[in-house]
Amino acid sequence: MKYSIVTTTINIPVLLEKYVKDTLLYKRDCFFVVVGDKKTPVGAKKYCDKLARENDVEILFMDVDYQEKYLKDFPELMKHIPYNVIQRRNIGLLYAYQKGADVIITIDDDNFFMDNDFVGLHTVGKTKKMNVISSRTKWLNVCSFLEEEFGREFYHRGFAPEMWFKDESPQVDVQNVNVVVNAGFWLGDPDVDALTRLYYSSKPINATGYKRKSNFALAKDTWSPFNSQNTSLLRDVIPAYFLSPLVGRYDDIWGSYVVKRVADHLGHTISFGLPLVEQKRNLHNYWKDLEKEVDGMNLTMRFVEALSAVNLSGKTYSECYLEIYCSLPKILKIDAIETNHSSYFKDYIEGMGVWIKTFERLNSLE
After folding, report:
1. How far apart are CA 173 and CA 177, in angstroms?
2. pLDDT tens-digit readout, 279-311
């Protein structure tokens, strides 16, 4: 299989060296895409070019000029995504897809390498026998499988707050499943919401280990978000995976719920666990993060319920994404609900339309 590792950065991405050497050691066919931004130092491109040359691997650093030239074929996407936002990751995902990657792995530039054969552990698109976990509440706290320094319970960013601290009574079944997304976990500073970070500001949540020896999958109709770091996606999924720049820090979260809904319909699964990375989180202002999360926290349950109500008949991720795009406005009744909530939903759905148009243009180029 052909793999691509995609990241965005406003730093010099020195963490890439270990990923590069690991792909060479395990002879993985993998190319790297690094999406820069206006804040990214000039040295980032020089570093990537040198790393590629010294290791004889393909590393494309997409600086702003490169992105603008590339996006001339995709004017809607160019207009929709501003500069200096992490959602420019979409450009890297699109490029890797266009260049034929069978599996696209997204990492953040603060995800430091831990597990050998990182790419091999991220393989998706194959039938695997694994534990499939369901929940009495229809929501599963995947972070419960991480050890925390003080034994505290915590939740993945974007997990519906209405479902926190419920008795999930998880049930485990062993099945042969077709995994299309694998979400690797993060030790150190895990991906929790800003409210949790502020509450535990004096003693931050610290993930110290993974409790299981292997990965597990979510059962059908059992919900959990996954994020856009240390996550692999099968090529087929990408046309239904868009990171909206208009919904704050719920860009990857709502994108993951859309993918989960389609995966359930198509008989596919989302898995969690290995490979692990260590997250040495870049500096954040948690109050600003909270501002970017509060609407998503408030509206996620309504969004997921709306996704569940969509009648899907498509046979591909692309077809189902279009069905969701066409159905959500009516199901959500966005012209009748509170003004600010209506705008939030409309903005998200607008981005879905941009992604659909982008793939229509991509298909016309081929």
Report:
1. 11
2. 987 677 899 999 999 999 999 999 999 999 999
Mean pLDDT for 94-99 is: 98
Q: If you average pLDDT over every residue of the chain, what do you get?
A: 96
d(CA 3, CA 38) in angstroms, rounded, equals 27
Q: How far is CA 242 from CA 247, 250, 258, in A?
A: 12, 11, 9
Return the closest-CA partner of residue 89 out of 207, 9, 203. Answer: 9
Cα torsion 175, 176, 177, 182 to 10°: value is 90
- Compute the radius of gyration of the chain from its Cα atoms: 19
**CA nearest 186: which of 149, 143, 217?**
143
CA–CA distance, 246 with 105 (Å, rounded to integer): 23
Contact 89, 8 (CB under 8 A): yes
- Its domain, for residue 186, covers 3-365
Contact criterion met (CB below 8 Å) for 157 and 252: no
**What pLDDT, in 10s, does the model give residues 110-169?**
999 999 999 999 989 989 999 999 999 999 999 999 999 999 999 999 999 999 999 999
CATH number at residue 135: 3.90.550
Is residue 71 exposed (0-12), middle (13-18) or buried (19+ Cβ within 10 Å)? Answer: middle
- The total number of structural domains in the chain stands at 1
